[in-house]
Amino acid sequence: MAKLLYSATMSLDGFIAGPGGDMSWLTEHFVGDGGESATVARLLADVGAILVGHNTFGGDDPNRGTDKEGAFGGQYHGPVVVLTHRPPADPPADITFCTDLPTAVDQAKAAEGDKYVNVLGANVAKQCLEAGLLDEVLVFIAPVLLGDGVPLFRSDGGTTVRLTPIPGETTHWYRVADR
Fold it and tell me: CB–CB of 5/118 below 8 Å?
């Protein structure tokens, strides 16, 4: 059965993007120095589809215009489902746009085969958590402090989501326990 996994690279102070959605810090602090590159390679091989929000899909890509543009530094080539209230009138042929979460999740799961649906973007991850759909969370921590930006997870009024480490996995790979 398809699993939804929220993965992100986060600054040490908890941000996945800097102020205004800035992602330029990733080019200098990209994961891969402390043994994480093997986990990234394994993850990439296990991702069958990406579910992404509009802001992340159209946002700042520090590798724009290079061969590293796109998810996983340009290494991902597969189905992409974008959750948005504003789908384009003339969408690219290789991207699916959906206007509601259940349809987007269903489309991504249908496209993924027996692999993960990788959730990208804090807002979509939050929606998946609130709907009880998110199965796992994987966080890579970059050695940088951003001070402000888009947090890994934010819930107005506060929400506690319990996570349990997945045995045999990297340090910051968790199963969502509150499901």
Answer: yes
Domains in the chain and their CATH numbers? 4-176 (3.40.430.10)
State pLDDT tens for residues 26-48: 776 555 445 567 787 888 888 99
- In DSSP notation, 32-95 reads -SSSHHHHHHHHHHHEEEEEEEHHHHHS--TTTTSTT-SGGGGT--S-EEEE-SS--SS--TTE
Structural tokens at position 17:
């993007």
> How many Å apart are CA 78 and CA 152, to the nearest integer?
24
Closest CA relative to residue 100, chosen from 83, 125, 121, 122:
83
CA distances from 75 to 3, 28, 106, 148 (A): 21, 18, 24, 28
Q: What is the pTM of this model?
A: 0.86
Q: What are phi and psi of 24, to 5 degrees?
A: -60, -30
